[in-house]
Design goal:
There is one protein chain. The chain is of the alpha/beta class. The protein folds into two domains: about 270 residues, Metallo-beta-lactamase domain (Metallo-beta-lactamase, Chain A), CATH 3.60.15; about 90 residues, Serine Threonine Protein Phosphatase 5, Tetratricopeptide repeat, CATH 1.25.40. Helices cover about 45% and strands about 15% of the residues. It has 18 helices and 13 strands. Strand 4, helix 3 and strand 5 form a beta-alpha-beta unit. Helix 15 runs antiparallel to helix 16. The longest helix is centred in the middle third of the chain and has 27 residues.
């Protein structure tokens, strides 16, 4: 059994890299007992387990394809019934596997399994069902180029007809601000806080001096700016990290990545994340108050390289630039300060005019290719204009594919890679 705490100590304290310890976010469906009565199953979203005198408490259930594998791993560790499942929040990689937990409970004659979560989880489920097609599309766009490499959502998940499985029940036990549970003598405090979502819970388990953090901590830069998802709350997120840091926890159990031990180590990590989020909010709002446009702000506000170099703040999933956009959206709405964008022309009409001025779509595409290695941002604009001006132009699509693929390969965050890669794939097909 891998010593996950030793791995996290090596990464945080000694700077040991993934080339030596392997991936920090591991998806192997293996259970590791962290201490007696506490275990973690490493999955797309981990399942954190606590043994009690009246069965098991499970925090999160992984995604639809992982739920049964998680249950199998648990059963090799304990035959105790599933008493309570806690959704830290309603993202599918946390709730999608719940059907396997319910099925296991029913198979053993326990039809009273309790599912807990914040009151907004049910509203999220309703929204997922209303926007089922959109969620399928954006997840394919975000993870598509990674699926065959095992990075991100499994192909079976992307091909599912329902984004949220019907077998994932809404929470039957809900709360608004705080919920105190007592399961088989184990006391658990559930605390609500805005962060990546509006339905997020983190838990304090006093007997183990442990925190279950869900996605408040993901061993990457905080996912507070996802460009394809609903509003995030970076300042409130920072507040939640400060609240967790104040608990003096000796065991920290996130839903992605390695668990962490040691009160000082945990507090340092949580406060570092809070500092980064607060910096982005402070600097973005300051420029907003000066009347700056969004475009000026995203090119002005940044996080110091030495901060982003920390192993738990690397921008390999989300990134600060996207968080800045979400801060603007939260405090300033959707108008970006450019009056031409208030009621814009059709993109295709604008593209045709610019192409005509430049001497044709092929000229735009040629210039995009020239700039690709020098200024990828401008190159992408020109490549996009070229195909908008001439949608059937195979030469323009070939250039667009090349420009966006180069851009994708030069990015660090999965979100940027996913969107740029999706654009490249679109044009590769159109250029054939």
């Amino acid at each position: 059994m891998t010593d996950l705490l030793a791995l996290s100590r090596a990464v945080i304290d000694e700077g040991v890299g993934a080339d030596q310890v392997g991936p920090i976010n591991r998806i192997n469906h293996q259970l590791s007992e962290i201490r007696p009565g506490v275990a973690v199953v490493e999955a797309f979203s981990h399942c954190v387990l606590f043994a009690t005198d009246d069965g098991l408490v499970a925090f999160d259930t992984s995604n639809p394809s992982g739920g049964s594998k998680v249950v199998e791993a648990v059963r090799r560790w304990s035959d105790a019934r599933f008493n309570t499942v806690v959704y830290t929040h309603g993202h599918v990689d946390h709730v999608g596997g719940c059907g396997a937990f319910v099925a296991d409970a029913c198979a053993h004659g326990h039809h009273d399994i309790r599912v807990c979560g914040h009151e907004n989880v049910a509203k999220r489920f309703d929204r997922y069902n209303m926007t089922n097609g959109y969620n399928q599309i954006i997840n394919e766009r975000q993870f598509g180029q990674f699926a065959k490499r095992g990075y991100g959502m499994a192909e079976a998940d992307m091909a599912a007809t329902r984004f949220l499985p019907e077998t994932s029940p809404k929470p039957g036990t809900v709360y608004r601000d705080r919920l105190d549970l007592d399961v088989g003598g184990l006391k658990i405090e559930l605390h609500h806080a805005l962060g990546e979502t509006d339905d997020h819970s983190w838990a304090w388990v006093p007997a183990h001096k442990a925190i279950c953090a869900g996605d408040f901590f993901i061993w990457n830069f905080p996912n507070a700016g996802n460009p394809q998802k609903v509003q995030r709350y970076p300042l409130e997120w920072a507040g939640a990290m400060r609240a967790m840091a104040s608990k003096g926890a000796e065991l920290f159990l996130p839903a992605h990545g390695l668990p962490i031990d040691g009160a000082a180590r945990i507090a340092r990590v949580l406060n570092d994340v809070a500092d980064a989020l607060e910096t982005l909010v402070r600097e973005t709002v300051a420029l907003m108050n000066q009347g700056a446009r969004l475009n000026d702000i995203i090119h002005s506000v940044s996080i110091a390289k030495e901060v982003l170099a920390k192993p738990y703040l690397k921008p390999t999933y989300d990134e600060p630039e996207f968080v800045v956009r979400n801060i603007w959206r939260l405090y300033g709405g959707w108008y970006d300060g450019n009056p031409a964008n208030l009621k814009p022309a059709r993109e295709s009409a604008l593209a045709r005019e610019i192409a005509a001025l430049a001497g044709g779509a092929n000229r735009l595409a040629a210039r995009a290719l020239e700039l690709s290695g020098e200024d990828g941002r401008v190159a992408c604009h020109l490549a996009e204009l070229a195909v908008l001006a001439a949608p059937e132009n195979k030469q323009a699509h070939a250039v667009r594919a090349q420009v966006f693929q180069a851009r994708r390969d030069g990015e660090s965050s999965l979100m940027a890679k996913g969107i740029f890669g999706y654009a490249a794939n679109e044009s590769k097909k159109r250029a054939e």
